Structures are given as structure tokens and as C-alpha cells.
Amino acid sequence: MSNEMVIHQSAPLVPYQDMERMAAVIAQSGLFGVKNPTQALALMLLAQAEGMHPVTAARDYHIIGTRPSMKADTMLARFQFSGGKVEWTAYTEKEVTGVFSHPASPNKVPVTWTIEQANKIVQEVWADNPGGGRTKVKQKITDKDVWKHYPRAMLRARVISEGIRTVYPGVLSGMYTPEEETDPHEVQGEAETSGPNTAPPPPPEEIARDYDAEISQFNDKTALRTWLAEQRKANGWKPDHPVYSTLKAACAERAQAIDADAAKLAEGQAADDFDAGLGPVKDLGEPA
User: Fold this and answer.
1) What is the pTM of this model?
2) 239-264 average pLDDT score
3) Mean pLDDT of all residues belonging to the chain
4) How far is CA 95 from CA 118, 122, 159, 222, 280, in A?
5) Which alpha helices (DSSP H) does the chain contain, by range?
6) CA 48 to mean position of chain CA atoms
7) DSSP assignment, residue 284?
8) Per-domain residue ranges for the chain?
9) How distant is the alpha carbon of residue 73 from its chain centre?
10) Who wins on pLDDT, 95 or 141?
């Protein structure tokens, strides 16, 4: 298999007018980091150009700043669909390592990301000056809340992107993950500056909130239900609000996964109890 861009099986073409209506709904939902229908429509056109249904753009992509980015899970799914494999040899909050291989690449490639590596990445962000105005300051990416709360998921996303980009880059279509994008964004705090920033500041950039990543961290249904109620209250969502309905469906899916994991654990424990209840079993040749 040659190292070329992966083209998925073509989905039926969706008329432009229908995509415009869908883009308006996606932007109204507030999910996926899409801030307006124009951004949503651009992603949908991109998805259709790749032979996929336009709605998959909302599932597979984020808009960070002004650039489209591809979710790490989408990258991994495309990589595996094209024949790629990854073996996770370390998966902690301090280090994540994956060994990547693909039929188009002769060698297996280990890729590691650690918190120490992430601590060395600094980006410029906007901060308010005490005397008025704003200026840019430097901040470690690990100072972000998402890194503090989900370090393992963030390290995993970096490993996936670097590993696939190294072994089989054609599957990514030149995309980076949202975790790799470093657009300036709004922060609070003081900054060292020679004086007030008199130039009109640029509008702050929104940070795309990855609800999927947050939901996937829950292993307790009660805590998940409490989190969903808190999101509804904090955002003032009504029961029929499209964002709340989407989150509710995602939480229900996660709850089913939690039940399935619990059932597997219970099944394993029951088997252990059964074996223990048998007691020592003598060989057939031994006297009773």
C-alpha cells in the first residue's frame, strides 16, 4: 500500500442548501468548537470532499481559532481502518507510549510523550494589564485546566498524532489534533509590561470544550448524572435544548458502557468464587 492520502468510500452527495441548514443547527448546538454556521459549513464541505457525509465533520473535527483540527480518536480510527496498528506499552498520567506500525512502513515506531515534555511547551496568551489593556504573556500548556484534569488523555492525543504522522501521514490529510493547536486565548492575571496596552486588543479566542473526553472519564453513573445536571444548570439549558439532548444521549451511552464493564467484572469475580468453592481437586488416580 502506497503512502498516499486515504480516501474513504464516497457517501451520497448532500445538496448545498441542505448543508446550510445543517450547519446552522450545528453552530446553534454550541458543540465541537464551531462558533458560527460559516465554520460549520466549511467543515462539512471538507468532509464531503473526502467522500464522507457532511455531518461527520461535526463528529470528527474541531475549529480551534481559525483552523480545523481532527480529533485524536478519529485519527486513530482512520489509521486502523487503513491497516495500521498501535500497541500501548505505557499509559499513565506521567507517560504514554505507543508502538505504531503499518503495512506501508517497514519498521515499528515507538512514540513517547511525558508530562516533562509537555511542561517545556510554552505558548503566548492574552492577559489583562493592571493599568488597562492587554498584553501577551507566556504560559505552559500544562497550566491549562484540561491538562490538569485529563493529563493521560492529553498525552495520548499527542502520541497518536505524532505516531501516525511518522508512520503513515497520508491518513491525516495534513490535520493536527485540537490538543496541538496553540492559538492565543483569554487568560486572567497580571503581566509584565512597560505600560498599558493602548492598541485595541484582538477578540479573545474560544477554547473548544471536548465534552466527549470529559464524559469518557466517568466510571460511576451517579457522578455522571450529577455532572450532567450541573452542566444543564450552569448553561440554563431547557430539556429540549439541542446541546443538552446531545449530552444526555452521550451520557446514556457512557452509562451503558459502565454497566457492561461492571457486568464483566462481576462475571470474573463469580468465576473466581466458583473455583474457590470447589476446593482442592484430586487427580483421577488418587484414592478418594
Assistant:
1) 0.50
2) 82
3) 75
4) 10, 19, 10, 30, 43
5) 16-29, 37-49, 56-60, 72-81, 115-119, 145-149, 151-167, 211-216, 221-235, 242-278
6) 22
7) T
8) 8-64, 68-194, 210-270
9) 7
10) 95
